[in-house]
Amino acid sequence: MNRLLWCLFFWVISQGTYAQRAGVYQFEKNLEEESGQLPPLKVLKEAGIFQEDVLPELKNAKRSVYVFEKNYGLQFDNRAANGFLRDSYTIEIYFKFSALDSWKRVIDFKNRKSDNGCYIYDGKLNFYNFALGTRAPVRANEYTHYVISRNGKTKQLKMYVDGESKVEFTDQNDEGVIDEDGVLNFFHDDLIVKEEASAGAVAIIKIFDYVVEPTEVKKSYLKLNESVLKKPMVPPVATSPPPARPLPETKTPTNANDLPSKEPSLVLSGQVQNETTRKPIKQPTVLVLNKYNTEKQRLKGTDDGLFKIAFEVGQDVYFMVEADGFFPTSIHFTAKELTEKSKNGTIFTLKPVTISESIVLKNIRFVQGKPELLPESEEDLNRLWMFMRDNPAAEIELHGHTDNLGDFDLNLALSRQRVESVKAFLVSKGIASQRISGRGFGSTRPIANNNREETRPLNRRVEFVIKKLK
Question: May I ask which residue range the UniProt record assigns to the signal sequence (predicted)?
Fold first, then answer.
């Protein structure tokens, strides 16, 4: 009986402890793991090529690397590896991207079913939609030492560049854990928001089934020359891994308010659509402005009209959205509204440009009974100016309107004067005066009930009609 108890004791101990293991992919003319105990990496889409590359970061040393085209990534099959990667791990990559002009996917844990995961954006590491790091030394066409680690007990996820921690947050919903598909994708875009991949090259990938301490991450970076140019000294993969535990289920992402206070950030995703057809607009331009209409960011949307922008928490944001063949629109989100929009995404709509159709400039305001423009008119005035600037052959006719209060003839004259005020603004911004004509209609063309105080202001407006576009 005692012997049986001792056997059971040692069996329990053996199931609860096992050696730390690591696998290394050196890309020496193949995609094999060097010990042969882990499966080779799989090619996503079409295979890249192996070639000698000069590594300036390693004193111009030459070695074999795997070169991949845009969105032609690699995949680690965790099921074929008997669940090698669990909820505690470290992944180390030495790679470069040829383009870093927008969001670029590095690692995907959910096999293309989620937009969440590891990206590089504007030279910063981030784990979308949870944490955005400070600017890191990541540049296009330069190799980067990139490390991500996750502690399964504390759920702390950390990301490093060149040995320095840049992102750290609590991965409460296991977004950084491989899901039921059992695969880990590198450099390959998801199916949610497209056009977020880059071509590039990778020199080494290491996968550890444990958390590598920050001091060891730093040492690994400092000894890059040894690990990349020579065979790295890492524990061999055990031939008898512990019994596989069920992989965690995919859970609903936390919202942006749950980000740690250390580096507060949130990301707004959205789509630009045709106001009339509700279809996506190809490659719209989204500008982020401050309250003084100074441009702070500019990005190009995808062919499906999709965009994604990172912001710091707690700021008001002003947008200007434009696209060929459409009239620009402006949007203002308060800090609270931006936080809410970042949870579910947003849709911006643009009105298609049509010859002879009247477009109302809803937010143009004048001093009561006078032609002087009020400051709040600037937003719509700038929209009209941007349209004229971006369509240099366009010619427009401005229409001025008033309500029916006061003398008819005075209102007619006032509507003409207000048209001249709008024209003067456009001319002051460089638009040729001969491209702008104008007419005043006074109170003769109401669009709302003049007998009701709440609707009468709608009749005090300026519209424009496109007379010529090309």
Answer: none
CA distance 284 to 350: 10
Identify how many contiguous H helices and E strands the chain contains and give both numbers: 6, 27
Residue 377 has what DSSP assignment? G
Q: Does residue 129 have a cis bond before it (omega within 30 degrees)?
A: yes
pLDDT tens figures, 183-211? 999 999 888 777 889 999 999 999 999 99
Letter string b/e over residues 399-419, b meaning 16 or more CB atoms within 10 A of that residue's CB: bbbbbeeeeeeebbebbbebb
Distance, CA of 214 to CA of 210 (rounded, Å)? 13
Query: 262 or 304: which carries more pLDDT confidence?
Result: 304
Residues β-bridged to residue 347 = 271
Q: 186: buried, middle or exposed (CB in 10 Å: 19+, 13-18, 0-12)? A: buried
**Phi/psi of residue 427, each to 5°?**
-65, -35
Instruction: Report the distance separating Cα 275 and Cα 279, nearest Å.
Output: 8
pLDDT, the chain, mean: 82
**pLDDT of 234 strictly over 60:** no
CA–CA separation, 157 vs 152, rounded Å?
Answer: 9
Coil, helix or strand for 387?
Answer: helix
Vertex 233, ends 228 and 238: CA angle to 5°? Answer: 120
Confidence of residue 227 (pLDDT cuts 50, 70, 90): low
- Non-local (6+) Cβ contacts of 137 within 8 A are 123, 144, 161, 162
Predicted pLDDT of residue 157: 92
Helix axes 378-390, 408-428, angle to 10 degrees: 60
pLDDT in tens, 426-442: 999 899 999 999 999 99
What is the value of pTM for the model shown? 0.50
Cα 96 to Cα 64, 80, 162, 280, distances in angstroms = 14, 27, 13, 32
Name residue 222's amino acid: L
In whole angstroms, how far apart are CA 368 and each of 209, 354, 356, 448? 71, 32, 30, 19
Asked whether 228 and 55 are in contact (CB, 8 A), the reply is yes
Q: By CB neighbour count within 10 A (0-12 exposed, 13-18 middle, 19+ buried), where does 88 fall?
A: middle
Work out whether the CA dihedral 412, 416, 418, 419 comes out positive or negative: positive
* Amino acid found at 432: A
- Structural tokens at position 193: 């928001």
Q: For the chain, what percentages of helix, strand and coil (3-state, to nearest 5) are there? A: 20, 35, 45
Token couple for 303: 């062919």
